[in-house]
Design goal:
The chain is an alpha+beta fold. It has 3 helices and 3 strands; from the N terminus they run βααββα. Strands 1-3-2 form a 3-stranded antiparallel beta sheet. A hairpin with a 2-residue loop joins β2 and β3. The longest helix is centred in the C-terminal third of the chain and has 10 residues.
């Protein structure tokens, strides 16, 4: 099974955030990443897991049935 990797720029585009935000996540080690020499790559599965971990379910304000 082959793993697909994204650059920092591609990750930022996929997450719809600035590149600086992704670089900060990597620097603070808040997201899993791989270093290939000087290059940083993020696995698509790791990016998806990070985004799903921050998911907040909608809250229902109605009366319980």
């Amino acid at each position: 099974m082959s793993t697909t990797y994204l650059t920092v720029e591609e990750t930022a585009e996929q997450m719809n955030v600035p590149v600086r935000f992704v670089r900060r996540l990597v620097e603070e080690r808040r997201i899993a990443f791989h270093r290939f020499g000087r290059h940083v790559r993020l696995a698509v599965a790791d990016v998806d897991a990070f985004m799903n971990a921050g998911r907040v379910e909608p809250h229902s304000y109605g009366r319980a049935a």
